[in-house]
């Protein structure tokens, strides 16, 4: 068995995000269309004979202990399957942190996949998804990847055909948005309109990009945009510069726009940077290949 392994942990966007209701237990029931994109962190794994977990990262403010989902994922596998060997993991982050792009969850999913391989465990994707839900609602999707309908609290996943080819502009403004703040201030049972998630799923099945972009909607914007107007500014800037449509991803603050051509997406990227709306700006494509 090779003693080192490198994996890419891909980010996600929400093409559509609806909150159906707030449950009695405080959790929110959602219906979301998730899409993996070609923006990724890199994880390098090295097998250790010692029974320990060592985590390093390129961002000094990130924890490298039990407070990190990568560490938790490896520990969960070791505890569940009584693994006595250890791992050293080098996490190189490129996905914006606390940005509504599942950066922590995708690193966690990659850690589950990588540690399983390094420890020689014979686990199916389904088994990894079931382990992942113990660590976070987005983790099973990040194991699955591609295009999917997410329901329940995010743990009920239905794979969908790949979304049509396009260019996606990602822009994360220099602010942090607390997911807890967004959901606590969302009046889920009083929402006047809901995204057409069924129509979007149908459009994906038909391979219709206009059918998808016409239905891009995120109910969490009702909380986040009034609190952080720069999100609306970035959306408008993308649309004024060629985006078919633009939307906030997850609970924000990252905004994405869908473009027909790379040239248009790059032009909009340059305008956003010039206007100092965001510094973390990337032109990417959809990712539809499984791990």
| Secondary-structure arrangement, i.e. CATH architecture of the largest domain | 2-Layer Sandwich
Measured by DSSP, the beta-strand proportion falls in: 25-35%
- Profile the largest sheet: 7 strands, mixed
H/I helix tally: 10
Alpha carbon gyration radius: 19 Å
The secondary-structure class comes to alpha+beta
Residue-averaged pLDDT: 94
Q: Would you tell me which CATH topology of the largest domain applies?
A: Ribosomal Protein S5, domain 2
Question: What's the N-to-C terminus distance?
Answer: 19 Å
Low-pLDDT windows of residues:
none
Tell me the overall shape: globular
CATH class of the largest domain: Alpha Beta
> Residue share in helices?
25-40%
Count of separate structural domains: 2
Question: Secondary-structure element sequence?
Answer: EEEHEHHHEEEHHHEHHEEHE
Please provide the count of β strands.
Answer: 11
What report would you give on this structure?
By secondary structure, the chain is α+β, with helices and mostly antiparallel strands. The protein is built from ten helices and eleven strands. It has helices spanning 69-81, 103-118, 125-132, 139-144, 179-185, 197-206, 209-213, 221-227, 230-240, 262-274; strands at residues 4-22, 28-48, 53-57, 86-92, 147-152, 156-160, 167-172, 217-218, 245-248, 255-259, 280-284. The strands form two sheets. Strands 1, 2, 3, 4, 5, 6 and 8 form a seven-stranded mixed beta sheet that branches. A four-stranded antiparallel beta sheet has the order 9-10-7-11, covered by helices on one side. β9 and β10 (255-259) form a beta hairpin. α1 (69-81) runs parallel beside α2 (103-118), α2 (103-118) crosses α3 (125-132) and α9 (230-240) packs across α10. It is globular, with a radius of gyration of 19 Å.
């Amino acid at each position: 068995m090779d003693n080192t392994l490198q994996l890419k942990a891909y980010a996600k966007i929400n093409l559509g995000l609806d909150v159906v209701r707030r449950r009695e237990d405080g959790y929110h029931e959602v219906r979301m269309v998730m899409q993996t994109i070609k923006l990724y962190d890199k994880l390098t794994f090295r097998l250790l004979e010692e029974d320990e977990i060592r985590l390093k990262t390129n961002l000094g403010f990130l924890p490298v202990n039990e407070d990190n989902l990568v560490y938790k994922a490896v520990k969960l596998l070791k505890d569940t399957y009584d693994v006595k060997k250890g791992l050293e993991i080098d996490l190189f982050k490129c996905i914006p942190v606390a940005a509504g792009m599942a950066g922590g969850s995708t690193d966690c999913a990659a850690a589950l996949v990588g540690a399983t391989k390094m420890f020689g465990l014979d686990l199916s994707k389904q088994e990894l998804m079931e382990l992942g839900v113990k660590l976070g609602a987005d983790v099973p999707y990040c194991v699955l990847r591609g295009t999917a309908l997410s329901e329940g609290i995010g743990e009920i996943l239905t794979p969908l055909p790949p979304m049509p080819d396009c260019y996606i502009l990602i822009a994360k403004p220099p602010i942090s948005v607390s997911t807890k703040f967004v959901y606590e201030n969302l009046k889920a049972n009083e929402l006047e309109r809901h995204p057409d998630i069924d129509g979007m799923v149908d459009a994906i099945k038909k391979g219709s990009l206009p059918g998808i972009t016409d239905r891009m909607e995120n109910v969490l914007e009702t909380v986040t945009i009034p609190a952080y107007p720069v999100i609306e500014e970035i959306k408008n800037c993308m649309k004024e510069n060629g985006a078919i449509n633009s939307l906030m991803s997850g609970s924000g603050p990252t905004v994405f726009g869908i473009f027909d051509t790379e040239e248009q997406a790059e032009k909009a990227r340059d305008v956003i940077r010039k206007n100092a709306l965001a510094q973390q700006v990337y032109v990417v494509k959809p990712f539809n290949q499984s791990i």
